[in-house]
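Dear Dr. V.,

Thank you for agreeing to look over these. As mentioned in my earlier message, I'm a first-year student in the group and I'm still getting used to reading structure tokens, so any feedback on how I've presented them would be very welcome. I ran two proteins. I've put each sequence directly above its structure. The first is here:
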Amino acid sequence: MRLDKLLANMGYGSRKEVKQLLKQKAVTVDGNYVKDAALHVDPDQQIVTVYGERVIYTEFVYFMMNKPPGVISATEDLRDETVIDLLEPLHQHFQPFPVGRLDKDTEGLLLLTNDGVLAHNLLSPKKHVPKVYYAQIDGVVTADDVEKFAVGVELDDGYVTKPGKLVIVTSAQQSEIELTIQEGKFHQVKRMFEAVGKHVTYLKRLSMGPLKLDDRLALGEYRALTPEELELLQHSQ
């Protein structure tokens, strides 16, 4: 790979800005200052540094975010803040996108990556990737609701959902539940409860496949997946 392309891809600036770094003797390859932007380097075999900091070449990025309410799951929007706006500029440079969508007012686990193959596999209906949600419900959730969810409920547009596993945490006028589904229809969790005459007042995604939300992440915070988490995701498909 050309040196200027490597550095531009890793967020060190445009090709023109990278050439300025080279002129300033900010870049070394295997300990030697380099000025030739067209020099071909192997980032896996050679040590490239910028101002003494080693450049670790990365093609794909994988971030776990605790999505806050009020932010939309999109790469860009003219009116609302997006989850991409919450990323540091260096991470935005890799052009990650949210894997699936959480409603604007929904919190919790969101995976962001630029790995299209992984994203496709996680979202494919054929893969049956389970997603677990915690919700607070206006209304008494009953064993009858559990049974209805277990066979699938008919939504307002006539679509019958695949079976979902509904677990009642507390049953009262304000109930708490956990729900596991394998689909991602528009507003699905909310619409499933509307189908049984109840209203979701708070919704948070806890997990997606084997990936569980890190409870140390505050709302709006994110971190890179650990190698173990990434391996679990890749082998869950």
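The second protein is here, in the same arrangement:
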Amino acid sequence: MATRSRRPERRQEPLSRERIVATAVELLDTVGERGLTFRALAERLSTGPGAIYWHITGKAELLAAATDAVVAAAVTVDPADPADSPEDAVRAVALGLFDATEAHPWLATQLATQLSRTPWGTVAPRIFESLGRQVRAMGVPEADWFTASSALMHYILGAAGQNAANSAGAAPSGRDVDRDEFLDTVSTAWEGLDPDEYPFTRAVADQVRGHDDREQFLSGITLVLAGITALHRPGR
């Protein structure tokens, strides 16, 4: 009697909310928000749109979940590399968000959307908690926790978002643009401004050339932290 050969079972990774969100982040990074559709997502996941709707109700929820996933990874401090001080922990969180915004071109817009339209969601509390715990550890009086943490969050997201916009604006045609060449163009233009109307801008024009965005960003964090420390010393 001939024996029937057994067909090997095809094992597929089970569809989960986490897998859907991770794939959505990949799509956002490659095709942007307009290219993120449930059809494109279903093709990437080798499933049907109906299976995705079982986990995600719509595009708004999908964008919020993708934003939260990226932010969660950005603000998580590595336990193997603990910060020496609350100030160092703030810098680690700040750099995490700065780098994430640069790595994911869609993130700055989504952060602004999530924080303005749904501040009760997960994104705003996640960022606020990661900064607020360090503000508290710095010894800032409780009455000033909200103001100090807000100042840090606004600077971090504003500066990171502007940096991402600068990177996108430097190459409007989609071609790669040499950063030094771009900064030199800006510096030259500023140096050519009317000296009576723009004396300060002309004076700092040369400092634009060759500056390091991350170092400048961290210098701003140091200024904000110094202000918090000076204004909110315990017992002041």
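From my reading of the second output: The chain has eleven helices and no strands. The longest helix spans residues 145-169. Does that match how you would interpret it?

Kind regards,
E.
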